[in-house]
Amino acid sequence: MNIGQAAKRSGVSQRMIRHYEAIGLIPKAARRESGYRDYDDRDVHTLRFIRRSRDLGFPLQEIGKLLALWQDRGRASADVKALATARAEELWRKEEEIRSMRRTLEDLARHCHGDGRPDCPILEDLAGEDG
């Protein structure tokens, strides 16, 4: 199948497929006589694996490790679990950071009069001013 068909079946854009090939995350596709890339079901399956990994927040470097583990039938599941656990912990930290940012913004917005006055506690906070 061509890159457009592979993109449609995998849910990964053509641009990202080319990018994954360029960075070596997936092997370069076979080429037809016409020079067009030629993908098979195995390639689509790998692209779906990458898409799902991205959906779960794994960065490309870790996806490369997951792909290697997925393709290694002698792998230890503990290695896979360690990557997943570390990613979950990182997502937890980011979630806490986002909650903190939201609370700060809500607090700043509560203290802003939101009228025609020029003084603005939001801008003062962003500028590092004490008010």
What does this structure look like?
By secondary structure, the chain is mainly alpha-helical. It has two domains: 75 residues, Multidrug-efflux Transporter Regulator, Chain: A, Domain 2; 55 residues. Helix content is 65%, strand content 3%. The chain has six helices and two strands, in the order ααββαααα. A two-stranded antiparallel ribbon has the order 1-2. A hairpin with a 5-residue loop joins strand 1 and strand 2. Helix 1 packs across helix 3 and helix 3 crosses helix 4. The longest helix has 34 residues. The model has no long low-confidence stretch (mean pLDDT 94).
Short description:
The chain is mostly helical. The protein is built from six helices and two strands, in the order ααββαααα. The chain folds into two domains: 75 residues, Multidrug-efflux Transporter Regulator, Chain: A, Domain 2 (Orthogonal Bundle), CATH 1.10.1660.10; 55 residues.
List the defining traits of the structure above:
Multidrug-efflux Transporter Regulator, Chain: A, Domain 2, single chain, 6 helices, 131 residues, 2 domains, mainly alpha
